[in-house]
Sequence to fold (477 residues):
Amino acid sequence: MLLKENIQRAGVGFLLDRVLKYVDKDPKKNILKLIGLAEKFAGKTFPEKTFTGFRNAISDDNNVWNTYAMNLLKDIDRDYLKKMFLSFVLGAGLHGTRAVRANREKYKCNIPWLMLIDPTSACNMNCKGCWAAEYGHKLNLTYDEINNVINQGVELGTHLYMFTGGEPLIRKNDILRLCREHKNCTFLAYTNATLIDQKFCDDMKDVGNLTLALSIEGSEESNDFRRGAGAYERTMKAMELLKKNKCIYGLSICYTSQNVDKVTSDEFIDLMVEKGAKFALYFNYMPVGTGAVEELIPTPEQRTHMYYWLKKMRNGKTGKPLFVMDFQDDGEYVGGCIAGGRNYFHINSAGDIEPCVFIHFSDSNIRTHTILEALKNPLFMSYYHNQPFNDNHLRPCPMLENPEYLRKIIKQTGAKSTDLENQEGVEHLCAKCDKFAAAWKEQADKLWAENKHPNPKTQYYRDTEQAMKEKLDDLVR
Fold:
C-alpha cells in the first residue's frame, strides 16, 4: 500500500471510529456525516449528484434506502462495517477508480476495476447447466500465483477481487490470508454456502474486507431443481449463521427461463431481506459449455420483466431494502459490455486470462504473461477497439446478444478455447445464442427507444484522438 494511501486510511479510520460511536444515538445524523466524509475525500472523482442522492434518501424516513441504511447499522458488526468502508469505499471506490482512470490513459488499453479469479476448479456440488460442474477437481492456482496477480492489479488500480470456481471456499484459508495481506482491497467469494461455519464467520469479521454472495434461485423447489436436493435448506442455515454473526453478505442469482418469476417475487425478496442479505447480483443464464441447456436462456418477455423489475426495486418509494443489479439489463448504466478488461476480466483455475467469466477463450496465461501484457495482447485489444458491441446497451454482450462479434473476435485474434474439460469452438457456442439474439433485438430496440437512459460518460476507443486519426487516414486512402 502506498504511504499516502496508508496515511489517508489511518485518518479516515480514526474519523469513522468517532462517528460510529455516536451512530446509535442519532443514526440519520451520523449517516449524513459519513456521506459528507466520503464526499470530502472523493473530491471530483464522482459527480456531486451521487452524494446528493444519498443525502436525499437518508433524509426521507419513508425512503427504502433510509430503511436499508438503518438495517446496515442494526445488522452489521461495527468494526466489520468500518473495515469494509475503508477497503471498498476508500480503497476500491476512491484510490482504485483514480488509478484505473489514469492508467487507461497511460497504457492506451482497458484497465479493469475488478478481477474474477478461480482459485480452484473443485466443487462439492453438480448444478444443472453449470460449466464448472464439467471441469473436474484437479486444477488450482497457488497462493503465490493469486497474490502475484493481486499485486500486479493493485499497481494498475484494481482494488476489488471476486473469487469464483469451482467452490472458492474450498480454499478459504488462502482467501483469508489474501484479505489480511491486502487490507486496502475488497474481496467477494461466490459460494454455494456449504462450507460456512462459526469459525469462518469469526474470520470474516476479523479481516473485515471479505463478503460473500450465496447462490440461491428462488423457492426451495426452483432452487433445488437446478442445484440439487437439500441445497436450499443448507443455504438458509448459512444465512441464519451469517446474520447471527452480523456479517455482510448477499446473493448470487442465476435467473433462467424456469425461475424468473420465483427469484423476483415479493415473497422471495422479503425472505432474503429478513434473512439479512444486503445485496443481490443477478446473472442471465448463459449457454456455456457442452452440457449447456439452451432452453434455460430467459425469453425476451422475461428479460423485459427483469428490466422493469430492476427499476421498481431500486426506486426509493416502490423498492425493497436490498441492493440489486443485473449484469445484462444494467448495461445502460455502465455503457454496455464491461468485459475484456474494460471493467473486469476472469482468470480460470488453469491461469488462463479470459475476457469474461462466460467466454472461455484466451491468448494469455498468468504463468507466461503479466496482467498488463494480457491487456495489450490481441484478444483484449480487440475488445478495447470494438466496445461497445452495440449502441443499444440493453444488448451489451458479444456472445449472447451480438454473437457475430464473438465469432469475428476469435477468428481475428486466434484465441483458443480454455474449457478445462471439453473444448468448445466459437461456432458451437455462438450457435446456441443466435436464436435468442434475433428474438431479443426487436424487443430490446423497442425498450431502448421508449425509455430514458443514464449517461455513464464512458469514453470508448472510437472517441479517442487515435481512433479519429485512423478514420481520417482511411478516408484519405
